[in-house]
Amino acid sequence: MLKKINFYFILFSFLYHGKVLASEGGMPQLNTEFWVSQIFWLTIIFGSLYILLSKLVLPKISNNLEARKSQIAENIETAEEQRKESDQKLKDYEKIINDAKIEAKNIFNQTREKILRDINNKKESLEKEIDEEINKAEKEILDFKKKSPEKINKIAIETSADLIKQIIGAEVNNSSISAIVEDISKKNEGKYYGN
């Protein structure tokens, strides 16, 4: 406010003091007799500039500013919508990935369980086959063990009969040889056959 008062004071002091304006020094625009025409033309020029600016230029600038403002608002709104959409798509993507991980884990576990069942089934069947083979082999061993004394006695009788025949040169009765072999085998049966 103080600045305005100082400005007006200086302006009026120039107007009332002609010598201060220095119109005599060669500056006609400061000569007071031309001031009315100068103020007239100043008013017409600045008035027409004001009308031109206020009616033509400023509305266009104002419209441009409003268009920019609305465009910026639309862009911000669109960006916000796109951000929300991208957030939703990201959540959907994460959900799909989590679902796929869970499904893959379930498939892996199911496959693992199936493979373990198959392995256990094959293991059990293989163990059964091995047990059957072991039992069969044990039975054969027991059969051989039971039949072996008879076969050994038979071989011993035949061998003894052949040896005696070769040594003596005459045939010997097989019943006496078999009685001797059976008697010896009964004495040594526990020693050789583990009974």
Q: Could you walk me through the main structural features you see in this protein, from its secondary elements to its overall organization?
A:
- α3 packs antiparallel against α4 (174-193).
- The protein is rod-shaped, with a radius of gyration of 66 Å.
- It is mainly α and 195 residues long.
- The chain contains four helices and no strands.
- Residues 19-23 have low confidence and may be disordered.
Radius of gyration: 66 Å
Tell me how many strands there are.
Answer: 0
Low-confidence stretches: 19-23
Outline, from the CA principal axes? rod-shaped
N- and C-termini, Cα separation: 138 Å
Topology summary:
Blueprint: H1 2-16, H2 18-21, H3 35-168, H4 174-193
Helix pairs in contact: 3-4
What structural keywords apply?
0% strand, 89% helix, 195 residues, mainly alpha, single chain
Brief digest:
With 195 residues, this protein is an all-alpha fold.
